[in-house]
Structure to design on (292 residues):
């Protein structure tokens, strides 16, 4: 492959991430005409349209999607080779982007963060609290924690590192007469009705004569704040709910608790770098210390 051929591919990958010529040009410190010229040359060489221009920016065609998968893998392999040559694989330095749902970031990783960053002062930790699954191969994150067996990023290395057992919680400020069966459920909004927690709560509502839920959220961290304020009752991972001082668990003896798995994903070309090894070890210890 000639150098200009790789430049065409590299620029196509940047366009897919930045969505516009202007943003891509700023990222690569070139002008927009250079970006346009490289894309035109690539499409001519492949005899295929790589992007469609839309109001939201440049969106890959199916041919583009297929091509970009290979470019992303090549990018990671080139970066890994460069790191090894430079000796970066032995240094515990640089930035690592970790993504997980907000409640795992805020209630599990953040409490364990200070000793880790004090020990590795040349390491930069970027915590991305996000309910959506960010792509590792698009470099939206380097390490991902997910609450189910991965269905995307299948080329990444995945490992189950914990199990979440859920319990039903309410505020301690609510009396026994007001709480329990008399307390309305807090659940997830309609777009998240397939979430295991939402399904579990829906089943409980259907089994009883209780009123339908009155409060709907799109994230467990918001749900936690509602519980603290006595808005209703809902599900939390026991490793989190049991540690919140003004919450109490009200489902002791539940025969069918909700259980979810915690999976860690990392790009195969990055996991051997020393900074990733120590970060993954830290994440596993944080998960274990939370009782998951």
């Amino acid at each position: 492959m000639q150098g200009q051929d790789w430049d065409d591919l590299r620029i196509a990958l940047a366009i897919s991430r930045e969505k516009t010529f202007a943003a891509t040009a700023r990222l690569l410190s070139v002008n927009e005409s250079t970006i346009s010229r490289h894309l035109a040359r690539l499409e001519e060489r492949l005899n295929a349209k790589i992007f469609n221009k839309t109001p939201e920016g440049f969106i890959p065609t199916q041919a583009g999607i297929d091509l970009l998968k290979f470019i992303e893998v090549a990018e990671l392999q080139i970066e890994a080779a460069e790191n090894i040559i430079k000796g970066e694989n032995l240094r515990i330095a640089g930035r690592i982007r970790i993504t997980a749902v907000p409640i795992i970031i805020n209630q599990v990783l953040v409490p364990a963060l200070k000793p880790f960053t004090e020990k590795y002062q040349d390491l930069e930790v970027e915590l991305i609290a996000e309910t959506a699954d960010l792509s590792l191969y698009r470099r939206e994150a380097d390490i991902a924690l997910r609450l189910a067996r991965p269905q995307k990023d299948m080329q990444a290395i995945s490992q189950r590192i914990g199990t979440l057992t859920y319990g039903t919680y309410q505020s301690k400020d609510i009396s026994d007469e007001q709480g329990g069966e008399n307390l309305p459920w807090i659940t997830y909004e309609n777009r998240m009705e397939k979430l295991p927690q939402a399904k579990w709560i829906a089943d409980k509502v259907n089994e009883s004569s209780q009123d339908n839920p009155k409060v709907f959220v799109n994230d467990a961290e918001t749900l936690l704040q509602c519980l603290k304020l006595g808005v209703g009752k809902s599900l939390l991972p026991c490793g989190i709910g049991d540690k919140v001082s003004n919450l109490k668990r009200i489902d002791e003896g539940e025969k069918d608790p909700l259980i979810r798995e915690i999976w860690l994903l990392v790009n195969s070309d990055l996991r051997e770098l020393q900074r990733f090894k120590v970060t993954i070890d830290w994440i596993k210890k944080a998960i274990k210390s939370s009782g998951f």
Q: What stands out?
A: The first strand starts at residue 51 and ends at 54. The chain has a mean pLDDT of 88.
